[in-house]
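As a representative case, the lines below give one protein's residues and fold tokens.
***
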Amino acid sequence: MSQRGFSVRALGEIAIRCIDLDAMVAFYRDVIGLEPINDPENSDIVFFRIAEGFAGHTQVLALFRHDIEGAGNTQAGDEPPATGPGSSLHHLALSLPWDEQDAVIAWYETLNREYHVERFPWIGWRGIFTKDPDGNTVELVAKEP
């Protein structure tokens, strides 16, 4: 423990402002396989369970309609947000076991989805990259055995 008196232990939530909330919900639910933890049909903010998390706070992906204000006094925007190289979000990486990466590739090929694979030998990771409907890069990453 440092002089701060605290130490971050896990990522609690990632929140994305969405251009097309319905398409984004369908992608993260049906393509990536995340489980909604609230009703996507009746909400302007949809939460997906990523993992158990830390100290009772489930790790989540939150999708907000871009014109909805959020926690932390995060203001809404009238204009849709920039994505891709115009966004401050470089990419989103979600972890999975190494032995499931071939299934990701097969699934993307079944869906006729564009993807590419990158290896990061300096740390021993391999990522499979695609784009969500709003144009954000999404990586499914695993540690090589």
Q: What stands out?
A: The mean pLDDT is 90.
